[in-house]
Amino acid sequence: MATPGRKRHRPAAGGQRSRRRAAPLCLARLCLAVLAAGLALAGGRAAAAEIRAWDFDTFGRVIVDFGETTGYSVEVASNAVAITFDQPFPEDGVAGLEAASVRLGRFVSGASFSPDRTVLILSTTGPMRVNDFAMGDGIAIDLWRLSRDTPAAAQPAEAAEPEVAEAPEAEQPAAPGDAAGEALAPAATEDAVAEAEPPRDAAGAVALAEA
């Protein structure tokens, strides 16, 4: 028997059916939310930070990938290259630095980050020529060895010293007396020949006398 002053209400049959229909709908929405979260997580992993390296025989390349674009600057010393980033390198990508250093063993003797991970220091095996450029979301650093193994065409040739031609020796001018003697010599010879030959008129006179 119902208590006086209170009314008991029974849910209608239609209300029970709507609740039963709402339960699968909520479950479907929950599954979609979990799937979307999984896809977002997978996308985040695809763009994770990493460090890669290659040895191309003539040069070595290291790529520092932040997973997003970031600014940087490069400083080159005699046996080291320092790359400074505008933001710290993600900690989960630091693990690949050791493998990259080993792969570039002919060019790099060691690699390390600064404590705040904003500077990457590459200790090189000798003087290097460095080229840097952006590659997608990564920063590419190329190391070219500068040593005796470098082809001569790649190194500036030393300027050859110009040869100084020897000046020809100047001929000494003849003395005035010698020049005058040489000029008079032919005349004196002609006079002597004229005196030695008998005059043609005298020879004719002798011939007439004998006759």
Features:
single chain, 4-stranded antiparallel beta sheet, 211 residues, Immunoglobulin-like, alpha+beta, 25% strand, disordered C terminus, 4 helices, elongated, 8 strands
What does this structure look like?
The chain is built from four helices and eight strands. Strand 3 and strand 4 (80-85) form a beta hairpin. It is of the alpha+beta class and 211 residues long. The strands form two sheets. The protein has a four-stranded antiparallel sheet with strand order 1-2-8-7, covered by helices on one side. Strands 3-4-6-5 form a four-stranded antiparallel sheet. The chain starts with 12 loop residues before the first helix and ends with a helix. The protein has a domain at 50-149: Sandwich (Immunoglobulin-like), CATH 2.60.40. It is elongated and about 125 Å long. The longest helix has 34 residues, at 13-46. The relative contact order is 0.10.
What does this entry show, briefly?
The chain is α+β, with helices and mostly antiparallel strands.
CATH top-level class of the domain at 50-149: Mainly Beta
Strands across the major sheet, in which order? 1-2-8-7
The whole-number mean of residue pLDDT values reads 72
Reported by name, the CATH topology of the domain at 50-149 is: Immunoglobulin-like
Number of strands: 8
Would you list the SSEs in sequence order as H and E? HEEEEHEEEEHH
* Biggest beta sheet attributes: 4 strands, antiparallel
Summed up, the helix count is: 4
CATH architecture of the domain at 50-149: Sandwich
- Characterize the overall form: elongated
Q: In terms of per-residue confidence, which ranges show pLDDT below 50 for 5 or more consecutive residues?
A: 42-46, 151-162, 202-211
Per DSSP, what share of the residues sits in E-state strands of 2 or more residues? Answer: 15-25%
Note the quaternary state here: single chain
Task: Give the proportion of residues in helices.
Answer: 25-40%
Instruction: Name the structural class.
Output: alpha+beta
Distance between the termini: 215 Å
Radius of gyration: 54 Å
